[in-house]
Design a protein that fits this description.
Helix content is 32%, strand content 27%. It has helices at residues 4-13, 19-28, 61-71; strands at residues 32-36, 40-44, 50-51, 75-81, 87-93.
Length: 98
């Protein structure tokens, strides 16, 4: 498994669709692979739900939001789009109970 610092570096330098990076992120947050007869490699998310494909974290904002909400409770996220069409994202952990 990828160490966290290496994974963060890859995420920060990412620039588009990257199925290998999607897989590394998914594995870090508890996705596991299994073989399904007649289908081939499938994935099980952290809740045990089966999927034919790994979530597309590098291209699907909804997948990222679902990941953060399910696996990083208490974290606050922000996504900014800029006038040149680019975007940036930020995750912060704030203990809102204190």
């Amino acid at each position: 498994m990828t160490n966290l610092q290496s994974l963060l570096s890859r995420v920060e330098s990412g620039s588009g669709a990257d199925r290998e990076l999607d897989t590394e992120v998914g594995r870090w947050f508890g996705w596991t692979s299994y073989h399904e007869q007649y289908v081939g490699e499938c994935w099980r998310d952290w809740s045990g739900l089966g999927h034919m494909n790994m979530a597309s974290y590098t291209t699907d904002l909804n997948a990222v939001v679902a990941l953060v909400e399910a696996r990083l409770p208490g974290w606050v996220w922000q996504i900014t789009t800029w006038s040149d069409g680019s975007a940036s994202a930020r995750l912060n952990w704030w203990n809102i109970d204190k």
